[in-house]
Write a structure and sequence with these properties.
Blueprint: H1 5-17, H2 20-27, H3 31-45, E1 50-51, E2 56-57, H4 59-85, E3 89-93, H5 98-109, E4 113-117, H6 120-129, E5 134-137, E6 144-158, H7 160-165, H8 187-196, H9 212-220, E7 226-229, H10 230-236, E8 242-244, E9 251-259, H11 266-289
Parallel strand pairs: 3-4, 3-5
Antiparallel strand pairs: 1-2, 5-9, 6-7, 6-8, 6-9
Organism: Pseudothioclava arenosa
InterPro entries: LysR_HTH_N, LysR_subst-bd, WH-like_DNA-bd_sf, WH_DNA-bd_sf
Keywords: Activator, DNA-binding, Transcription, Transcription regulation
Length: 291
Amino acid sequence: MNITFRQLSYLLALQRTGSFSRAAEEVCVTQPALSMQIRELEDQIGQPLIERRPVRLTRMGRLVVARAQRIEAELAALEAEVRRGGGQVNLGVIPTIAPYLMPRALPALGPGLRLREARTETLLAELEAGRLDAALIATAEPDVAEEILFEDRFLLAGAPALLALNRGLPPEALDPGELLLLDEGHCLADQALALCGLARRAQPFDLGAASLATLCALVGQGMGLTLLPELACLRETTPEIALMRFDKEPSRQIRLVRRRDADQDDWFTGLAGTLRAAGTGLVAEVRARFP
């Protein structure tokens, strides 16, 4: 029997996508090439692994997929250990943290860091696949080991005249028609909605804003209000934008996560310490400037 990792990876892609065409696209081969490798794997096993119409795993296919997933995880862990042993750490960071925290932290992190900016769900998938060693996120997630670094509080941002009309109000009392949020899928938008007790459908405008810079530009033109994390305050505020703190300040916890089965050597402890120092220093500056 001569089963290859390529054959197993193609089977895993087929299991994830449920389609020969989408699986071929995922692994960057033609559909006939993928189908041939699946056929050869079935010949090696001596049993069908896939029911073709509709595409679904047979009982033996499920058993092979379970083993292949363990092999894939072990290989990813091995690659990560070799990479870190050579002094390289692959770090993922969400977009509402990266442009504000990383310029402060990078000088202390050294040349071995490789940075990847993406949304939370993408970073977690790449962490699980072993392409990332750690991720800097702002939500509690299951099945990862985490180190909470610091608290990042939310301020209300708006043009001075509009902000004055909302002074003293708690987040849940804000007018949903005035609140501008990031595009759906950003965890910061979900956190803001939860704080204000709102649903996405309650928002009058579908702005599709992908960055806090875009939101702040709109806010500065008097188009509405937004919740701005402390991390972003120094960079995103302009003379056209005023900030207001709430009496009971809502916040998010910034955390560094890694796979539970990954080794926790000095690299993770050191990375957490450096990011914590940079983050606490930055929010301290913001709190002094915007008390």
